[in-house]
């Protein structure tokens, strides 16, 4: 079970936040987008995954992105990021 | 192994230093959109705080402080910045108040002015801007471009993890370098100095990705610029006391702005003033003005010089003072010069069309944003 928490600060996200959970061992990938902050839990089968989160910040705003849960391998390279650039993308690797 | 880790570490360090340098050289795009707003519109409805020194060259000087209710609430509850809470704060974000210290020519206290302004219509709200709905969605195809950009990143990141059985430490370094490289490109718009092993995950060494990023930022600016053409309609009420803190005057005003270069500016004020000549006279006056605000000089970071010619009409509805004209037409012009990113010097030139007189007033206004 993993949790993805995306917090948008300073206004609305001008475009939806896109998330891709890529199962590196097969094609059972998960793709979704959200128009506002979210904190959601997903049940994933055991395996290696990469998670890509990308979006745009509100003007003068920032976004906190974090991944938590029960892992065989803790999220790499970090479990959380803060991005203040107009557009951003962060990448995680996890083993469930 | 140690050598490759060292190479990666040096790459990240180099990127970090280069990014910091580039950030110093390049203006942050986050700030640009806010700066693109006209000085004229910032005087009508500001973002957070505004400090002003008005009438520097006249007998009636004033020191003003303007703020929104939201800016004050934010001081006590920073969590309000989160999107789901911020969007519920429309009233407090559109309600601003002002306190003005009135001074005479020798900077002696002449009284206090307090007032509130509320934006009935505010289509220029950048914080609530969503590019994927309404008229913006039809004109700016930013989300479809971002989907392509996302796809490109997805393919590159997958390539990075193709090789199995990489030691955890090395994998961590590689992923850190990947994230840092993308962040570096997002901050600077450049792909130079990004390590080859990252660039090689893109089929064209990241050239297309950088171009798409540049286009995304351009579209973002364009979207904010379109938002600034929307309607802004405010109403305000304020009252002034004299040096003995006795009520002296009150005013109800409304301002309408529309468009961007030129920006249509229509405003009207209904005022009540206690004037002391020989005996106390309560005068009631209606002042209206309409004009167009032009950006005479622009830069990448916004307007540098603005010029607003307008016609003003003043009508005394009750108790004109002896020899005072009951109605006067002025041909006025405001010239605003931006001194720094947030400091404006507005100069008002008044021309009495009937008496052929020139009058000039120099003001200063400083817009402050706590997020910067």
From TrEMBL, chain A:
Full protein name: Uncharacterized protein
Organism from which the protein derives: Pedobacter nyackensis
TrEMBL record, chain B:
First and last residue of the signal peptide: 1-19
Originating species: Pedobacter nyackensis
Tree of life domain: Bacteria
Record's keyword terms, sorted: Signal
Protein's name in the database: Uncharacterized protein
């Amino acid at each position: 079970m993993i949790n993805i928490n995306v917090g948008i600060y300073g206004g609305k996200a001008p475009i939806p936040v896109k998330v891709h959970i890529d199962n590196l061992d097969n094609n059972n990938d998960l793709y979704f987008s959200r128009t506002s902050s979210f904190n959601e839990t997903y049940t994933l089968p055991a395996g290696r995954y990469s998670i890509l989160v990308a979006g745009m910040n509100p003007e003068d705003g920032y976004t906190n992105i974090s991944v938590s849960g029960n892992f065989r391998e803790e999220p790499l390279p970090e479990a959380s990021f803060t991005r203040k650039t107009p557009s951003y993308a962060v990448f995680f690797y996890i083993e469930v | 192994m140690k050598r490759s880790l060292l190479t990666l570490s040096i790459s990240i360090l180099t990127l970090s230093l280069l990014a910091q340098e580039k950030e110093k050289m390049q203006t942050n795009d986050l700030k640009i959109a806010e700066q693109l707003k006209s000085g004229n519109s910032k005087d009508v409805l500001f973002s957070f705080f505004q400090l002003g020194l008005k009438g520097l060259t006249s007998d009636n000087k004033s020191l003003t402080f303007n703020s929104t209710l939201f800016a004050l609430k934010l001081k006590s509850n920073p969590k309000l910045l989160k999107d789901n809470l911020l969007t519920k704060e429309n009233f407090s974000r559109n309600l601003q108040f002002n306190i003005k210290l009135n001074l005479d020519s020798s900077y002696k206290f002449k009284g206090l002015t307090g007032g509130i302004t509320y934006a009935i219509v505010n289509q220029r709200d950048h914080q609530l801007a969503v590019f994927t709905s309404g008229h913006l969605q039809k004109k700016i195809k930013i989300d479809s471009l971002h989907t392509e950009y996302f796809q490109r990143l997805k393919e590159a990141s997958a390539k990075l993890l193709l090789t199995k059985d990489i030691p955890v430490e090395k994998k961590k370094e590689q992923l850190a370098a990947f994230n840092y490289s993308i962040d570096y490109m997002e901050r600077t718009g450049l792909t130079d100095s990004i390590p080859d092993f990252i660039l090689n995950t893109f089929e064209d060494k990241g050239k297309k990705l950088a171009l798409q990023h540049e286009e995304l930022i351009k579209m973002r600016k364009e979207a904010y610029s379109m938002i600034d053409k929307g309607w802004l309609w405010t109403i305000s009420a304020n009252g002034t006391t004299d040096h003995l803190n006795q009520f002296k005057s009150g005013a109800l005003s409304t301002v309408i702005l529309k468009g961007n270069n030129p920006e249509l500016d229509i405003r009207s004020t209904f005022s009540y003033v206690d004037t002391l000549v020989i005996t106390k006279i309560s005068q009631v006056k209606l002042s209206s003005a309409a004009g167009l605000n032009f950006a005479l000089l622009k830069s990448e970071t916004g307007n540098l010089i603005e010029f607003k010619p307008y016609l003003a009409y003043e009508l005394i509805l009750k108790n004109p003072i002896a020899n005072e004209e009951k109605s006067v037409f002025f041909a006025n012009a405001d010239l605003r010069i931006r001194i720094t990113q947030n400091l404006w010097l507005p100069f008002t030139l008044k021309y009495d069309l009937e008496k052929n007189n020139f009058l000039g007033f120099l003001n200063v206004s400083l817009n402050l944003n706590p997020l910067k």
